[in-house]
Design goal:
Layout lengths: L1 E3 H7 L7 H9 L4 E6 L6 E13 L7 E6 L6 E5 L9 E11 L3 E3 L2 E3 L2 E3 L2 E3 L42 E5 L10 H12 L12 E6 L5 E4 L7 E8 L8 H9 L9 H11 L3 E5 L7 E6 L5 E3 L5 E3 L5 E4 L4 E4 L3 E2 L12 E7 L2 H11 L4 H8 L6 H16 L2 E4 L2 E2 L8 E6 H8 L5 H11 L2 E5 L2 E6 L9 H12 L20 H15 L3 E2 L5 E2 L1 H4 L22 E2 L4 H13 L4 E12 L8 E15 L8 E2 L2 H15 L4 E5 L6 E11 L2 E9 L1 H7 L4 E7 H7 L15 E10 L4 H11 L4 E10 L8 E10 L8 H19 L2 E2 L1
Parallel strand pairs: 12-23, 13-16, 28-31
Antiparallel strand pairs: 1-11, 2-11, 3-4, 3-6, 4-5, 6-7, 6-10, 8-9, 14-22, 14-23, 14-24, 15-22, 16-19, 17-18, 19-20, 20-21, 25-27, 26-27, 29-30, 31-32, 32-33, 32-37, 34-35, 35-36, 36-37, 38-40, 38-41, 39-40
Helix pairs in contact: 3-10, 5-8, 6-7, 9-11, 10-11, 12-15, 12-17, 18-19
Length: about 800
């Protein structure tokens, strides 16, 4: 949930409270704040520009040469490639020596021979995600309002000087999925008053809702209330800029002045709504019911969905026109030709909404709120507010009356609790007056009978129903850091680490010594990610009642979680990312009642490995960076006969830069580059990963290392240069050398590889250094020479390799 500090400030008094102070206080009071972002930070010298002239570039079919007023005496000539650039528009201009998103510096330059003094920017170049940019500006630049003054900084026009507070909302606090809910929370923390906007509903007097539509529901348990208002004579157009910028800062794409109002009310009240084009409904009757098997509906994303009896649908009396609480129908969407709007406001069964959203993979801001709960006390207010706001922004008129299936009213929940219960649970010594003040700040009406509180819980806090909930509320507002603390009591017992524990600690020390940081990822993820990077996919382990779609399925690999961490860090401009994780994966095998948990080790590295210095250039991560880390780890653990075998079996891995890792004949994992297409989907740069069965590694690791006396006799080295087919792997060559090298061959080292036109098509040159040593006597050249000749002959015969 993204919260605009400026918007929140209008709903509750935040005088003398900075965004960072507010974030800290909220985190310590029960609602975790992930981040506080000020969009304008990092941007510099980006101003309003007035395009005075725009002509095609003489040497380009897609560039334009513009003359732009940026508030200085002379116009700036700027070459622009946006297809929608035109004279007479106010635009966003990055002046020479300015900074745009990504800390990119804009310089004076030339484009196709024409001087360009800066750049005309799109919203994406200011840091806005493509998912929130209005579609009409997605492939071009954004136009500012006519009243924008050339030369002024653009940040205030786009509300980029606002602070955006990102909240992590747990399922039990769904009341905070609205600005009003957050305002109530802040008011309780600081003991201040809320001030919510209202609108006086103005209805037409010449017609009635009965002339337009009637509504009914098949089951009031599944749809406690369904309301519909009609707004006629509307004009569909862009929303005013204040509404567009507010929605973009809240992470929602502006569409038009009707749809944007429903999203505004969604954020303000936490009440999802849907707007239909009334003239496309095909009926004056709206009925909410279960779908029938094989019934079909084309949703707003233009995908035809086959429905079932598990789905709750809105119909025009016969045909489905929307998935209740999830997504509207394509045939009745609001378009530029819409003149009459039918506005839906309702309450839908959380279980049915979640089931439908999950079955179709259509989790949305709307379904998320219906699944977790809606403030039933503001349904009518939200309906009236949205209808009047649509009328104001579209020039329409609200038809008199509202079609209602049933006027649902939920009574306050009454919970009793004693002062002794509160103090005993928290270890405090609070007085009646102190607890009463806390309940008042929360907006909970209450009475006192001796030392017992009888508390009336308003519908906006549907998460409170028992004594323990009230204890938690008192603790939150009183302050967790104010609660008394005591040291735990108990006795200690002697113990020691198991073999696996010692090995895992050794692995951690080794990897951290190599510069990797330990990551701890969620073991629950989406069903799609749960089976990525898995060779033998098993049945997934899914929760019956997950908190969210993103945390519904147990992982079968550690890599997806690590890649999410990589994406998070790279999005925050970290140039070097190196993680490892030790954790369990979960697989469900046929015939087992419980899933099998297996301990795995995974790593992910990306970006710059060695930074640029005065005597050496920067070095980026590649396959051999990670392979070296793995080989060093296996050497420390004493694993022998480790092989890296090329593999194309992993769909999410680069087919030419991936290998299975074997110890002898046992496959223990894989290593390689994440497939570029999958990396693009995860929004990460070139990244290399590996994953191993940690239990298999522990089984293969010796309990104690084997020590061997250092040889007393000198070794002999011989270099051998080979010309082979490019398709022959180094491992095949090493296998032949080891086979023919005899017992005195102690090391094989590849020190040079070359490919080029001079060698011929599909040829490569390799050079190996061979080390021979006899620990019982001194080797003579003749012995080594004869062995090298055997090796050369075997390479020529078995692999058709030329020894040069």
């Amino acid at each position: 949930m993204l919260v605009s500090y400026k918007w929140l400030k209008k709903l509750v008094d935040l005088e003398n409270i900075t965004p960072d102070e507010l974030a800290d206080k909220m985190s310590r009071s029960g609602i975790e704040v992930e981040d506080v972002v000020i969009p304008e930070e990092g941007l510099k010298k980006i101003v309003v520009g007035d395009v005075k002239e725009c002509v095609p570039h003489p040497d380009s079919d897609h560039l334009s040469i513009t003359q732009v007023d940026v508030g200085e005496e002379e116009l700036y000539q700027i070459v622009c490639g946006a297809p929608n650039i035109q004279a007479g528009k106010k635009v966003i201009v990055a002046l020479p020596n300015s900074r745009i998103t990504g800390n990119v510096k804009i310089k004076k330059g030339k484009m196709r021979g024409e001087v360009s003094l800066g750049m005309i920017c799109s919203l994406e170049e200011l840091g806005y995600s493509n998912s929130v940019v209005p579609k009409e500006y997605a492939d071009g630049i954004y136009f500012l309002p006519e009243e924008a003054i050339p030369g002024e900084l653009v940040f205030s026009y786009l509300e980029m000087d606002d602070a955006i507070i990102e909240l992590s909302i747990t399922p039990n606090r769904a009341d905070a999925l609205s600005l009003r809910g957050v305002a109530h929370e802040v008011a309780a923390i600081y003991d201040r008053k809320t001030n919510f906007p209202t609108k006086e509903l103005v209805e037409a007097t010449d017609d009635s809702i009965n002339d337009y539509v009637s509504v009914s529901v098949a089951d009031e348990k599944e749809v406690p209330t369904y309301r519909m208002r009609v707004i006629k004579d509307v004009t569909i157009q862009e929303s005013p800029m204040w509404l567009q910028t507010l929605l973009m800062n809240e992470g929602i794409r502006p569409i038009n002045n009707v749809v944007d109002v429903t999203n505004y009310v969604l954020l303000l009240f936490g009440q999802p709504q849907h707007a239909f084009d009334y003239d496309k409904l095909g009926s004056k009757e709206i009925k909410v019911r279960r779908a029938t098997n094989e019934e079909k509906l084309v949703t707003l994303d233009e995908v035809e969905r086959e429905l079932s009896t598990e789905n709750l649908v809105i119909t025009n009396g016969s045909t489905p026109i929307a998935l209740a609480g999830v997504m509207g129908g394509f045939d009745s969407e609001i378009t530029e030709t819409t003149t009459t709007v039918a506005l839906e406001t309702a309450l839908f069964d959380p279980t049915l909404t979640r089931r439908t959203a999950r079955n179709f993979g259509l989790a949305s801001e709307s379904s998320k709120r219906f699944e977790r709960g809606i403030n039933t006390a503001t349904v009518e207010e939200a309906s009236n507010f949205a209808a009047q706001m649509i009328a104001e922004l579209s020039g329409g008129i609200v038809v008199k009356g509202e079609a209602i299936s049933s006027d649902y009213q939920k009574e306050d929940v009454i919970v009793s609790i004693t002062l002794n219960k509160i103090n005993r649970s928290l270890g405090t010594d609070l007085s009646l007056e102190e607890v009463s003040t806390i309940f008042n700040s929360l907006g909970f009406e209450h009475t006192k009978e001796n030392e017992t509180f009888v508390v009336s819980i308003p519908p906006r806090r549907w998460d409170i129903s028992i004594e323990a909930d009230l204890v938690e509320e008192v603790a939150r507002i009183y302050g967790y850091d104010n609660l008394p603390s005591t040291l735990p009591k108990g006795s200690s017992v002697a113990g020691k680490l198991s073999k696996n524990q010692r090995i895992i600690r050794q692995i951690r020390r080794s990897l951290e010594g190599k510069g990797l940081n330990e990551a701890i990822s969620y073991m629950l993820m989406t069903p799609e990610l749960a089976t990525k990077f898995v060779l033998d996919k098993q049945d997934v382990v899914a929760l019956d009642l997950p908190m969210s779609e993103e945390r519904s399925t147990a992982r079968q690999s550690l890599v997806p979680g690590l890649l999410k961490n990589v994406a998070y860090n790279q999005a925050r401009k970290q140039s070097r990312v190196a993680f490892y994780e030790v954790g369990n994966i979960f697989e469900s095998f046929e015939g087992q009642s419980l899933p099998t948990e297996t301990n795995h080790l995974a790593m992910a590295v990306s970006g710059v490995w060695n930074a640029k210095t005065w005597d050496s250039p920067a070095k980026n991560v590649d396959f051999y960076t990670l392979k070296g880390i793995v080989e060093n780890l296996f050497n420390i653990l004493g694993l022998e006969d480790v092989l890296f075998v090329p593999s194309k079996a992993y769909a999410e891995m680069h087919p030419g830069r991936t290998a299975q890792v074997k110890v002898g004949e046992t496959v223990i994992g894989f290593i390689g580059q994440v497939h570029p297409q999958f990396a693009k989907e995860m929004e990460i740069q070139e990244t290399y990963v590996c994953e191993f069965d940690l239990e298999a590694i522990c089984d293969l690791t010796k309990e104690e290392p084997t020590y061997k006396e250092v040889g007393k006799y000198p070794s002999i080295k011989r270099d051998i240069a080979l010309l082979s087919d490019a398709a022959i792997s180094s491992q095949e060559i090493v296998d032949v050398i080891q086979d023919k090298g005899g017992k005195h061959l102690v090391d094989i080292h590849l020190f040079d590889v070359f490919q080029g036109e001079k060698l011929g098509h599909n040829k490569k040159s390799l050079a190996y250094s061979l080390t021979f040593r006899n620990d019982e006597a001194t080797l003579v050249d003749e012995d080594v020479t004869s062995v090298v000749e055997k090796i050369s002959a075997a390479l020529a015969e078995e692999l058709n390799i030329e020894v040069r």
